Structure formats: C-alpha cells, structure tokens
Amino acid sequence: MEQRSTAMAHPAVTALTAVLGEPGTAGDAVDWEELARTTGLRLPADYRAFVELYGGGELDEYLAVRSPAEDLLDGLDFDPRQAPTALTGTSEEELEDGRLLPVATTVHGDVVFWLCDEPDPQRWDIVVFKRQALHGERRWTRFAMGFGEFLLGALTGTLASPFSARGFDEPPHVYRHWSLPL
C-alpha cells in the first residue's frame, strides 16, 4: 500500500489547504499502484494528494469530488490500457467525444472531467460540462490545468465561474468527507 505522505507534497494541494483548512477526517486510503495494475489507469499526482488528504466528499454542499475508494471509475467509458490515438481540440463536439473521466459533479448537473488524451496523466486538462448554460454560452469548456489548480482557481475566483451557479468562489469553504454524518 502506498504511503499517505505525498498529500502535502503537491503545491496545488498545499494551496488548497490554505483555502479549505485542514480536513475534518482522514482522507481515503487508495493503493494507487494496485489501481494502475488492475485498471491500467494512472491518476494525476495533485488528485492523488487531494484524495489522500481530504478523500471523496462534498465541497460547500455543491461540488461532489469522486474518489477511487467510492465511485470514480463508474464513469469510465474508454479503456485506459489503450493509448490515446489523437489529441482533442477545443470545439464542443471534440470535447464531448474525447476520452473523458468524470472527477466531480455539481448539484446543478455540471460535470468536471479529466481529458485523458495524453499518456501522461500529469498533462491531462480539465473539461467542464455546464448543464445549465445561458443562451449563447458554451456548455463545454477546456481548462489547460490540473485538478488542484482548477479547484483552487474556482474557489478563489481566479477562474471565471466554470459552473452553472455563481458564487462558488465566496468563502468560507467547507469540505465534508462522505464518511462524516450530516
């Protein structure tokens, strides 16, 4: 089993703890090597660090972050053992048809995906599908950044609101692990 010591080693997760505070419970224990061996899926370091520290749970009663300990692989619709055949562009049609792995969802039905079109998971971009886009607004948006940087930008307002609801960047922020009672 991989040690849980990498959680604070990733700069994006360290920055997130300044916004979210220390977790209220232990994160999820995931054997990342076993996951890669059995599924062929290697996940980005910032996400692994986040899951080790905070675990799967809910942010501000709005954004549900998935974990391999719970349901992350339920949304996998491609074989991670097969190498990507091409890079995905930025058009909505190309993004919708890309190798997408959902990592988080909002209460409004927005979905945060990794775009898994690179063999190296450290190079995966974030793609958001906005379920309730305003007229003329794009439903699919690609962010050239990882999970930790994306989440930090969404929480601090350095990213324009990627979700259907506004105000996600307003503090204080609370993260609740799934194992905690309501």
Descriptive report:
It is a single chain. With 182 residues, this protein is an alpha+beta fold. It contains 5 helices and 7 strands. Helices cover 23% and strands 16% of the residues. It has a 7-stranded antiparallel β-sheet with strand order 6-5-4-3-2-1-7. The two termini are 30 Å apart.
Spell out the blueprint of helices and strands.
Elements: H1 11-20, H2 32-39, H3 45-53, E1 57-59, E2 63-65, H4 92-96, E3 100-106, E4 111-115, E5 125-129, E6 140-143, H5 147-156, E7 175-177
Antiparallel strand pairs: 1-2, 1-7, 2-3, 3-4, 4-5, 5-6
Helix pairs in contact: 1-5
Strand content: 15-25%
Radius of gyration: 16 Å
Strands of the widest sheet, in order across it, are: 6-5-4-3-2-1-7
Structural class: alpha+beta
Shape: globular
Oligomer: single chain
> What is the number of beta strands?
7
Supply the number of helical segments: 5
Q: Mean pLDDT across all residues, rounded?
A: 88
Main beta sheet strand tally, sense and closure: 7 strands, antiparallel
Poorly predicted regions are: 1-8
User: Helix proportion of residues, in percent?
Assistant: 10-25%
Order of helices and strands: HHHEEHEEEEHE
Span from first to last CA? 30 Å
Structure summary:
The protein has five helices and seven strands; from the N terminus they run H-H-H-E-E-H-E-E-E-E-H-E. With 182 residues, the chain is of the alpha+beta class. Strand 1 and strand 2 form a beta hairpin.
Entry keywords:
single chain, about 180 residues, alpha+beta, about 25% helix, globular, disordered N terminus
